[in-house]
Amino acid sequence: MAWLGEIDLGTRASALPDARMVTLTIDGATVEVPEGTSIMRAAALGGTSIPKLCATDNLEAFGSCRVCLVEVEGRAGYPASCTTPVTPGMVVRTQSERLTQLRRGVMELYISDHPLDCLTCSANGDCELQDVAGAVGLRDVRYGYEGANHLAADKDESNPYFAFDPTKCIVCSRCVRACDEVQGTFALTVEGRGFDSVIAASQSEDFLSSECVSCGACVQACPTSALIEKSVEAIGTPDRAVVTTCAYCGVGCTFRAELRGEQLVRMVPWKEGKANRGHSCVKGRFAWGYANHAERILNPMIRESIDQPWREVSWAEAIGRVASEFRRIQAEHGRRAVGGITSSRCTNEETYLVQKLIRQGFGNNNVDTCARVCHSPTGYGLKTTFGTSAGTQDFDSVMAADVMMVIGANPTDGHPVFASRMKQRLRQGARLIVVDPRRTDLVRSAHIEADHHLPLQPGTNVALLTAMAHVVVTEGLVDEDYVRARCDLEAFAEWAAFVAEEARSPEATEALTRVPAADLRAAARLYATGGRAAIYYGLGVTEHSQGSSTVIAIANLAMATGNVGLEGAGVNPLRGQNNVQGACDMGSFPHEYSGYRHVADAETRALFEAAWGVELDPEPGLRIPNMLDAATEGRFRALYVQGEDILQSDPNTQHVAAGLAAMECVVVQDLFLNETANYAHVFLPGSTFLEKDGTFTNAERRIQRVRRVMEPKNGLADWEIVQAVAQALDLDWNYAHPSEIMDEIARLTPTFARVSYDALEAHGSLQWPATDATPTGTPTMHLDGFVRGKGHFVVTDYIPTDEKTGPRYPLLLTTGRILSHYNVGAQTRRTENVAWHPEDRLEIHPSDAENRGLRDGDWVTLKSRAGETTLRALVTERVAPGVVYTTFHHPVTQANVITTDYSDWATNCPEYKVTAVQVSASNGPSDWQEAYARQAERARRIEPVAAE
């Protein structure tokens, strides 16, 4: 539909490198396009629309529907315009009496196999079949509809988000091709022949039980209502759209939020989105219903103590309570007795305001964020080696990679849209190394298989990477020209001598890593010699006691092989939440202002003091665990938490609970009464990403607009709430729009110097650094040299974690995410995504299960030195013997009651990925779970509002 602002050009752009321009004539008009362009696309670019059904520019040309036939002068027959490339001087006619007859005949056959219920069809007005029938002038059908597709006539409504009606299917195969080419799941197929052909879920009776991952690519590709969103059936076709950015993972997909009136009907991935290129996952595409969930809190609430019920109050009273309590506590206990936590889910502007509130309003640097809890080793490691705290590439560059190494990440679950791009490249011939204790989907799935899977023992990342470096150095695989030109040679020599020692060889470290030396050597050779090699890593790298050392080891390996500063190579952290990168950029750490500048730096501090009109504290503040420790000791009394649930997401849950319970005033600003709110005294209802303006920064440093789709149901956007608190503390804040906040960020943050809402509108997005030298951003970092000057090699000695297995705790627990849920599940658990993952399960190897007398589905106790919980077992060979794995999406499990206080040596990032545990049969919930459930139920009571 034209109002959506997207035109389907029918086929993809020419893929020929350095294609020369070709001039041809279409319907008497001269058109110039790159060589390799199809006639259909050339016509569309010239303003001529050729009818089509099987063609779409999201997919490879197929040429099956025969509606797009054209006449080419000097050529016999009527070629399909979608599969026929242009040639110099070609003369094309898209309309003639003969073409009209042919197209009408083709359309008659399609319509004869399709019910003529257009007036009552949910896709009426949004149906390509209907549009093409009108375009070719079809008015009568000589063949009667007899309900063909009888092999699968029952409507499949098993998927909670969309339905499949085979009677309306024209078997154009667009859904099958989208599943294959775009998503890479290969979950759909065509069964039967001729009029008996039907689309079916491969090896399954329905969509829900099939391999379908509900990305929505098939629904988006369908030209009829055979595949259609249930929301469209319920509400009707949309009539307007707003382009915005997804608020789930760090990929940062761009969507058209399509509405009918004020009702959101569907989220459609935007083809112009530079992070997702028109693709999506089940979360971004469908799991937005939490915005209207009955459990969402829409009114501010306060209470005197956490054992009392909540009382709804006005915004003025709630904001006044926050200001008065923080003033009182600082007067009684000192300036540093309060602090705050920013959110990796809120916008850059909102995050910036929270850290500004703490520094300017509270007068200290006690600000932290979950970004440190997951990716602070990235900041430390990459800044130390390269000079900047972010990934080196954009997502598009994966299509130029010859080798990919994925370590400590599970992209198909955590970053599924980017994983689809990876799978596309792998099917084109790229090679893959997976370093992970689990056999993830990238190790082997439809039409892809890793060349090497290195199932290392959790906690031995540094030993494994150093052994790979040993192979590179001792076998003469170092890119010496690159190292001489780009790196610090003295540091390199020290590092090379260290890794070359026999004690670092694959053979010597095999007992530690449990990776066969021959496999590790082969993987190292492939990485070093296979062409352009990119490393993608996740929380399985950072959430260790040696997280920073592992990031440095990755950087060392990339520099030694010359794999930084060129397209298709580099070092790329896959950020977990939508704005983890932005939260880091905005100064959410207790020791850094925005742009990663230390609070002790007098010149930087003077810049902020001049802008904010106050004297700022030069002493770094407290990190979250330090705040909790100080709270239990009586030195830290109040906490402002925006958009984070530290009780569920942070390690050692019982310690977090004790710290929160010891505080006099905990303020939670969120959508729901989350687990942290059990210990809160003031609740400020937050707004969803659909209800605000701002920006997010994704894992590739891409800054993108978030646009308000609907009015905030709570009355205020999150940035307005923070501003109201600042004003109550007598700060002179008067922002009228988030664009003004970004202007301030740009004035104070060198890497954001050329970022503005006008620039984002003009360019669609910007990748920082966006400076006077690079006003349109920087897709690839370190092109001509490292930001720090010379690349810096650092020796990374393997030091075993203090968390060790033994007779009482013989297994190692590692944790992670699953496709259908996001972080602590606060949003996705309040959507239909629970159909795929209604509970956290403990993955355990068959041999470990048999040794304990456990079967699949049994309730088990999971116990560590920190605590215990219960959940059901999932017996699987995805994990190695001696390793167990679970997700952390459901508070009833509270997986982090098991994890310990061990953390990264440099950044305090918790060691979530290595916990010694025992697993045994269980008769029911643990004592802690029962006590926690009672406390949570009591803490969430809300006094009924008195009738007027």
TrEMBL record:
Pfam families, from UniProt?
Fer2_4, Fer4_7, Molybdop_Fe4S4, Molybdopterin, Molydop_binding, NADH-G_4Fe-4S_3
Alphabetical GO CC annotations of the entry are: membrane; oxidoreductase complex
Annotated keywords: 2Fe-2S, 4Fe-4S, Iron, Iron-sulfur, Metal-binding, Oxidoreductase, Repeat
Positions the record marks as coiled coil are none
Keyword Iron among UniProt keywords: yes
According to the entry, every stretch annotated as the 2Fe-2S ferredoxin-type domain falls at 20-98
Query: Boundaries of each 4Fe-4S His(Cys)3-ligated-type domain copy?
Result: 98-137
Record GO biological process: formate metabolic process; respiratory electron transport chain
User: Where does the 4Fe-4S ferredoxin-type domain lie?
Assistant: 160-191, 203-232
Q: Which domain of life is it from?
A: Bacteria
- GO terms for MF: 2 iron, 2 sulfur cluster binding; 4 iron, 4 sulfur cluster binding; formate dehydrogenase (NAD+) activity; metal ion binding; molybdopterin cofactor binding; NADH dehydrogenase activity
* Alphabetical list of Gene3D superfamilies matching this protein: 2.40.40.20, 3.10.20.740, 3.30.70.20, 3.40.50.740, ADC-like domains, Dimethylsulfoxide Reductase, domain 2
- Which residues are in the 4Fe-4S Mo/W bis-MGD-type domain? 239-295
Query: Which PANTHER family does the annotation name?
Result: FORMATE DEHYDROGENASE H, RESPIRATORY NITRATE REDUCTASE
**Entry's family note:** In the C-terminal section; belongs to the prokaryotic molybdopterin-containing oxidoreductase family. Belongs to the complex I 75 kDa subunit family.
Protein name (Swiss-Prot/TrEMBL):
Formate dehydrogenase subunit alpha
Upper taxonomic lineage: Bacteria, Pseudomonadati, Pseudomonadota, Alphaproteobacteria, Sphingomonadales
